[in-house]
Specification:
It is a single chain. The protein has a single domain, classed as Metallo-dependent phosphatases (Purple Acid Phosphatase, chain A, domain 2), CATH 3.60.21.10. It is 15% helix and 29% strand. The chain is built from three helices and eleven strands, in the order βαβαβαββββββββ. The strands form two sheets. It has a six-stranded mixed beta sheet, covered by helices on one side. A five-stranded mixed beta sheet has the order 4-5-6-8-7, with no helix packed on it. The longest helix is centred in the N-terminal third of the chain and has 13 residues. The chain is globular, with a radius of gyration of 15 Å.
Length: 182
């Protein structure tokens, strides 16, 4: 099973089009979306390609392939436009005997994680800064933002397969960092 992880689209259809291309090029099975789909948020600049009304049907084309959680900029009004459930604060999925805890990152943080087991993977967005690291017997993944990257990062995504997790540049697909899974 292969998962393409994205976060913080913030209504930018151009950025999601790049993610859609990466999904096809990576031959991924599912999108894992860490929230902030349609609205750009009051603290962010208006993103290039901001068009939530046109983005919603493009996202909906993948409704059977999206695992999604709610971000701090998502609301019930957004859910009315999207055909996949995205209002949960977290989701858990299992792949290749490993547990993945997915959240946006504004409610569940390093200090407020639920009970997890050694080797589990915590996936979040929210900060717009890519992270892939092992800490306290857990693996932490943040793909960064497809749209509004911060801390001098580039628009990004991550790929999870049975053997590794890789952070990648959304603009050209180059690998930024890889972590082999034991």
């Amino acid at each position: 099973m292969k998962f393409l992880v994205i976060s913080d689209i913030h209504g930018a259809i151009d950025a999601f089009n790049l993610a859609e291309t990466a999904f096809k090029n990576e031959n991924a099975d599912y999108f894992v979306c860490c929230g902030d789909y349609l609205y750009h948020g009051p603290r962010n600049m208006l993103p290039i390609g901001y068009d939530p009304a046109d983005l919603a049907p493009v996202l909906n084309r993948h409704k059977d392939k999206i695992l999604a959680v709610r971000g701090n900029c998502d609301s019930e009004v957004d859910q009315m436009l999207l055909d996949f459930p995205m209002m949960s604060n977290y989701l858990i999925f299992f792949s290749n005997g490993r547990r993945f805890f997915v959240t946006h990152g504004h409610l569940y943080t390093d200090d407020t994680l639920p009970p997890l087991s050694p080797g589990d993977v915590v996936i979040s967005g929210h900060t717009h800064v890519p992270i892939l690291e092992q800490r306290n017997n857990l693996i932490f993944l943040n793909p960064g933002s497809t749209t509004i990257p911060k801390s001098q990062s580039k628009p990004g995504y991550a790929i999870i397969d049975d053997h590794s997790i890789a952070l990648k540049n959304l603009l050209d697909g180059t690998e930024i960092k890889r972590l082999e899974l034991p």
